[in-house]
TrEMBL record:
Protein name per the record: DUF3899 domain-containing protein
InterPro entries for this protein: DUF3899 (IPR025007)
UniProt cross-references to Pfam families, sorted A to Z: DUF3899
Source organism per UniProt: Halobacillus halophilus (strain ATCC 35676 / DSM 2266 / JCM 20832 / KCTC 3685 / LMG 17431 / NBRC 102448 / NCIMB 2269)
Domain of life: Bacteria
Spans traversing the lipid bilayer: 12-32, 38-59, 101-121
Length: 123
């Protein structure tokens, strides 16, 4: 179980995933296409991590709160058991461990991507 929680084993798993995608999808086996596959995986992690960071920062809290309030006022069927004021906001539902997970893996894969790009352009 500790193997799954080890973040470096996760990075190694991601590199294995990139290698597998490279072996399956690359038309030519060269460094250029490996860098492309690494880019797809790295920026997926960074995109999700930055999205979670924005949500965790409270950007959508006011919008969510006002939409719940508007729906409660306009709704024809009043649900008296549904307390819209007590529902958790989006920033309260995102755990910091997921945020750290996605940003760490995206950052490590991006560092590897930049190293391979430097190698590719120096050859």
């Amino acid at each position: 179980m500790n193997v799954l929680r080890n973040k470096w084993m996760g990075v190694a798993g991601n590199l294995l995933l990139v290698s597998l995608l490279f072996a399956i999808m690359a038309p030519v086996y060269d460094l250029f296409h490996f860098i492309n596959q690494l880019f797809y995986i790295a920026y997926f992690y960074l995109f999700v991590g930055i999205l979670l960071w924005v949500i965790r920062g409270g950007f959508f809290d006011a919008i969510t709160y006002s939409m719940r309030r508007f729906y409660n006022r306009v709704s024809k069927q009043q649900d008296y058991l549904d307390d819209w004021k007590q529902k958790p906001l989006p920033s309260q539902t995102i755990e910091s461990t997921w945020l750290k997970f996605f940003l760490f893996h995206g950052g490590m894969l991006t560092a590897g991507l930049l190293a391979l790009l430097a190698l590719y352009y120096n050859l």
